[in-house]
Structures are given as C-alpha cells and as structure tokens.
Amino acid sequence: MQRLIAEVILPLFPIKAAGPRGLDALDDGAVLSLHGGHLVVTTDSHVVKPLEFPGGDIGVLAACGTINDLAVMGARPVAVTLGLVVEEGFPIDELRRYLSSFAAVLSDLGVAVVAGDTKVMGAGELDGLVLATTGIGVAEEFVPDSGLRPGDRIIVTGPVGDHGMAILAAREGFPLEGEIRSDVAPVWPLVERALRVGGIVAMKDPTRGGLAAALNEMAGKAGVGILVREGAVPVRPEVKGLADLLGVSPLALACEGLAVIGVSPDRAEAVLAALREHHMGREARIIGEAIAEYPGKVILETGVGGRRFLEMPLGDPVPRIC
Fold this sequence. Notes:
The protein is 29% helix and 26% strand. It is α+β, with helices and mostly antiparallel strands and 322 residues long. The strands form 3 sheets. A 7-stranded mixed beta sheet has the order 9-11-8-12-10-13-14. A 5-stranded mixed beta sheet has the order 1-2-7-5-6, covered by helices on one side. A two-stranded antiparallel ribbon has the order 3-4. Helix 2 runs parallel beside helix 3 and helix 5 runs antiparallel to helix 8. The chain is globular and about 55 Å long.
C-alpha cells in the first residue's frame, strides 16, 4: 500500500493544497487554512467482513473511522458525507440497521450528514456493502503526526488489538471462553480533553497495522526514535491469549477506538489524568517516549529487559477490517 501511494498515486496529484498540510504529508486528514483556524478534511472507504461483529457493525465503523481521523488532527468534527455502494439484492432491513448505527454515532456528537450518493452493483459484483465517507472538522491549532521531539511521552488511550482480534474471531468462528469485542468508538471526547490540558505535539489513529504501524509512521515522519516498554502497553488477557495461539502480535492488530498521543513531558501526567476521567480512557497509559537515538525506528523494551526493533508490519494479519 505504501509503495502504491508513493509511486503511483502521489505523482499524479502535484498541485498542493491551500494550507499547511496536504496530500503529500500523508496525515489522517488534510489541513486547509481559514481565517482564525483550519478546516480539516478526510476521506475513507469502509469495508469489513463480516458486516456485523462483536461490538459493532459497518455503520458504527464508518462513522467512528471518519470522526477519529479528524480527531487525531485536533479537529472538532462538524459534518460528513456518505456514499453507499450496495450489492443488488442486499436486504433493506439490514441496510437500514447499519445506517441507523452510522446515524447514532453522529447524532451523539452533533455531526450532520450534509451530502451523499448511492450506487447499486450487480449481484456477485460486490461483497454486500461499501460505505464511503468524507469528514469535515475545524481546528484552532491542528496536530500533525510528525511533531514528536526527544523527551516527549507517548500515551495510548486504551488496550490495543481489540478490533482486529474481534473481527478475526468472528470471521473464523473461533470458540472462545471470553468474548472479544471491537473497541470501535469515536475518540473525539478523549482528544478534546487532552487538547484542553495542552502539550499535545502529535497524534495518530492506530487502525490498519495497529500500534506498531502508528508508532513507526510517527517516528519516521518526526526523525526521532521511539522507546516503548512492552509491559506498559495495555492488552486484554483474552486478546493476548488468542494472539499467542495464532502467532500474531496484538501490537500489529487494528484498533478503532484509540488514539496514540505524543505529549510534552511537563504535561504528560496531567493529560493522562484527564483521559482517565472519561470512561473510554480509564486504561490509558504512558507507554514510552521519543528519543534522539535510532531516528525513524521503534525500539521495544521487553519484560525481561532486552530490546528489539518493533518493525512496521509487512502485511495485515486480518485484511478487510475497516
């Protein structure tokens, strides 16, 4: 995917956006300059199999995915557009259920759907349903994912790997002693609390490729190293157990209700306290810090004191998850 974007897509769009961050920055959204602030725009297409899974469905996923891309840019979400691509014969009641889920997330945040489109593909030409969205938000000061400096602390707002493992378990029908549920949720309420405290220098939405991909992207863009303490990373026991059984790392599994936040060291504890006051952030933790050594690399400090590189995932162990 990274080679496709760099070698095929980006060279075709050389015109820069009228703002400080455009397509070439490869952030979670573009930033356009406005009088007194910034307009943040993001777009995404949502595909997931199965369409309904423990903890959510494609409607919730599409709404939260769009909101979260705006949120980690420091933008308050204000509007979205919705494009539907539906397979011929798709049950209307099922479509209504997923769209109701989509609408409920937006309603809770006071976000409007302002435009849309519907297309129908022939039976067998599409695997059910695709939801394509564009999100629009407003930020007084936008937050890039490239702002880390040596000494900045890294916070993750909750346990990692829940979404990817929930999708995998539902798709494969694994018999489980305890239920694994997706963490899909809008992170704007958490991000808003963190921004009020201040000291936020970088944020990232750890979706495809999970925490490992997010940290590697942040380190690479900022030109710093990131040291992560493995024991500090929150992982639910049931997620860790199934991941160990399948031979996959929870750190490389998608999350759909988390933010990775870079914070200046003098504000880190205050931001952590503010996050933990919200029910979604009760398990937030400081998991490491940016360092001057090993620029562009992520170093994982293991439970026994050893260190190894946490590499960018080479593939997705659970494709079609968002």
